[in-house]
Amino acid sequence: MFAYLLLFPSFIFLSLFTFYPTLKSIHLSFYSGPMTRLQYSGLEQYKEVFTDDIFRKVMLNNIIFVIGTVPTSLFLAMYLAIWLNKKMAGSALLRTSFFYPTVIPLIAVANIWLFIYTPQYGLLEKFLNAFGADGPNWLGSQSTVMIAMIIMIIWKDTGFFMIFYLAGLQNLPKDVYEAAMIEGAKPFQIFRHITFPLLMPTTLFVMIVAITNAFKNVDHLYIMTKGGPDNASNLLLYHIYEVAFTNWDLGKAAVLTVVLIIVLLGITAFNYLFLDKKIHY
């Protein structure tokens, strides 16, 4: 009973800001129309959403965004962590430099990269002009806008994930590495058979955080593209915002929210119920 009493304050906040909004969204998903004229529509809203071409495009964009950002961010974070875990001059400064983009608000990051990607006088355009080349309209072309968004998010998130890997590396047993070196193991063999397997618990946690971020990091879209051109950079959470607060279709926005919750719960359950069993602790 004492343990439950200690958990009770946290449960109150979870109930108010997580459980209640979730249940309210599920309830609203069976209604259509604006808040002042909601009408019960059953599953019609779900049928309308799943047959909507924009919804399909947004979901495809989000899948591409996850595939483009998560593996690359994790690989770079692990590489940087292994490199910076060594004792060398300036390692503290390098760690701070790589972590610094994490503390910058995403809105500020969006403004920085908006200047980088701007045609004619942007930083990237000036760099390409130095080699006699002209860059495309990175944010104005459907073929390049998603690539530009992916690169920006990788730049921002890699340093954040690097910190987790650094913490994981510093907790690994030193005697295992000493034994491997005595046996004559090469650096890649040590990484493959010792470091990588022992870092899998950290990787599982970081992967869940990275996938969640890939679905919720949409502030930059408001500044940079508004989801355009022609929804080429639109993501699910920003689409929910547009439907709810631009079109004021709260019923449809609730359906999209339920879809987002199911997707994130499914990904998390798969990671913890399936992948977690294959990890050595």
Task: Identify the overall geometry.
Answer: globular
Q: How confident is the prediction overall: mean pLDDT?
A: 89
Biggest sheet layout: 2 strands, antiparallel
Helical content stands at over 70%
Coarse structural class: mainly alpha
Strand content: under 5%
Number of helices: 13
Distance between the termini: 31 Å
SSE succession: HEEHHHHHHHHHHHH
* Side-by-side strand order of the widest sheet: 1-2
Low-confidence stretches: none
Number of strands: 2
Rg, Cα atoms, Å = 23 Å
Could you give a short description of this structure?
By secondary structure, the protein is mainly alpha-helical. The protein has helices at residues 2-28, 44-50, 53-84, 91-103, 106-117, 123-129, 145-170, 174-182, 187-198, 200-216, 219-224, 236-245, 250-273, and strands spanning 31-32, 39-40.
Explain the overall architecture.
By secondary structure, the chain is mainly alpha-helical. 72% of the residues lie in helices and 1% in strands. The protein has 13 helices and 2 strands; from the N terminus they run H-E-E-H-H-H-H-H-H-H-H-H-H-H-H. It has a two-stranded antiparallel ribbon with strand order 1-2. Strand 1 (31-32) and strand 2 (39-40) form a beta hairpin. Helix 3 (53-84) runs parallel beside helix 7 and helix 10 packs antiparallel against helix 13 (250-273). The chain starts with a helix and ends in an 8-residue tail after the last helix.
